[in-house]
Write a structure and sequence with these properties.
Pfam families: Cas12f1-like_TNB, OrfB_IS605. It is built from eleven helices and 13 strands. With 349 residues, it is of the alpha+beta class. The strands form four sheets. Strands 9-8-7-10-11 form a five-stranded mixed beta sheet. A three-stranded antiparallel beta sheet has the order 1-5-6, with no helix packed on it. Strands 2-3-4 form a three-stranded antiparallel beta sheet, with no helix packed on it.
């Protein structure tokens, strides 16, 4: 209905299908409303992905194919619940969940002491997710943000594939360990897929998402180090705006797997939310020519980048690691954006 008649707005779609889905599926009023909201949210996310170029350029085959069919939902996809449909009892560590078979009460849950402390500040929806046969509840926590004070300069961070993050202080966080781990996992998957046996299929199932979890852990560690350095030195953090980078960059065949497994968006998101909790300012800058511009004299030319790792300015002669030079440019641009007011910053009384 939403796709066929182009009813993507919540009020319009709810008016058209509310009574019908209540009668056809024997749903309560709140469940019917939440069903409509989930469909509208899915199409809003799809529209945002189109704008960001995640389905390719306008007119491309991939984009036309995506726009020609309705959004589909998997049986194991996340199910959002509001406080009327799912209630938490933190004292007894139990939840009550509405289902199509009736409300299930007294379901115990387990979490870490830190998560239990944060649940006291829970607000909004909770998502029920099924992974590898286990159910997880994802809760939204509302934590007041500390006031962001005016930074004393910026810590520029250059994100990359060979080096995950390089700071303007010259600290290089290499991705060698992550890339080796990913290569081992790819080799293992290839060997198991060739076997085509039941035991190989069981091993493949156990290996699922291990690589993603490992990369997520590494990104948490790196983000925590970056925010701690900026907080300790009373600086903000400058990051590149890499939206749509995978569509803009053409990689060789042997580099495509590394490019598309590059979790720079996740690392950037981790840096942002950790910085907000610490009261550290974050500014995104235009990444154009950060690898070609000299961070000392501002001379910009493609020949300044001699090799992937070596930068030699043709004007002033300074020699730097290429990623270090790029991170210094990012720091300069972030500071300039903050000074001219192009970045979000607290108002001064």
């Amino acid at each position: 209905m939403a796709f066929a008649k182009d009813l993507k707005r919540r009020n319009v779609l709810q008016e058209a299908v509310y009574h019908r889905i209540k009668a056809d599926f024997d749903l309560g009023a709140q469940a019917a409303v939440r069903t409509v909201k989930k469909v509208c949210d899915a199409y809003a996310t799809f529209k945002a992905n189109l704008r960001a170029g995640n389905y390719g350029l306008e007119g491309s085959k991939r984009r036309i194919k995506a726009e020609s069919k309705p959004v589909r939902f998997r049986e194991t996809s996340a199910q959002p619940f509001d406080d009327r449909m799912l209630t938490w009892n933190l004292d007894t560590k139990m939840v009550s969940v509405w289902t199509v078979a009736g409300r299930l009460k007294g379901i115990p849950f387990v979490c870490s002491p830190e998560a239990m402390r944060l649940l006291a500040q829970r607000k909004g929806e909770s998502d029920l997710v099924m992974r590898d046969g286990m159910f997880f509840l994802l809760a939204t926590i509302d934590i007041p943000e500390p006031e962001v004070s005016g930074p004393d300069g910026f810590l520029g961070v250059d994100l990359g594939i060979v080096n995950i993050a390089t700071t303007s202080d010259g600290r290089i966080m290499s991705s060698r360990q992550v890339n080796r781990y990913r290569q081992r996992k790819r080799d293992l998957r290839g060997k198991l897929q060739k076997k085509r046996t039941k035991s190989a299929a069981r091993v493949l199932k156990r290996q699922r998402r291990k690589e993603a979890r490992y990369a997520t852990q590494r990104n948490h560690i790196i983000a925590r180090k970056l925010v701690h350095t900026a907080e300790r030195t009373s600086r903000g953090i400058g990051l590149e705006d890499l939206t749509g980078i995978r569509q803009r960059v053409t990689a060789r065949e042997d580099q495509r797997a590394r490019l598309h497994s590059w979790a720079f968006a996740q690392l950037g998101a981790f840096v942002e939310y950790k910085a907000k909790r610490a009261g550290v300012a974050v500014v995104h800058v235009d990444p154009r020519n950060t690898s070609r511009q000299c961070s000392e004299c501002w001379h910009t030319h493609r020949t300044n980048r001699v090799t992937r790792a070596r930068f030699v300015c043709r004007s002033c002669g300074i020699v730097l690691h290429a990623d270090h030079n790029g991170s210094r440019n990012i720091a300069h641009r972030a500071d300039a954006a903050w000074q001219r007011g192009a970045a979000n910053r607290p108002r001064t009384p």
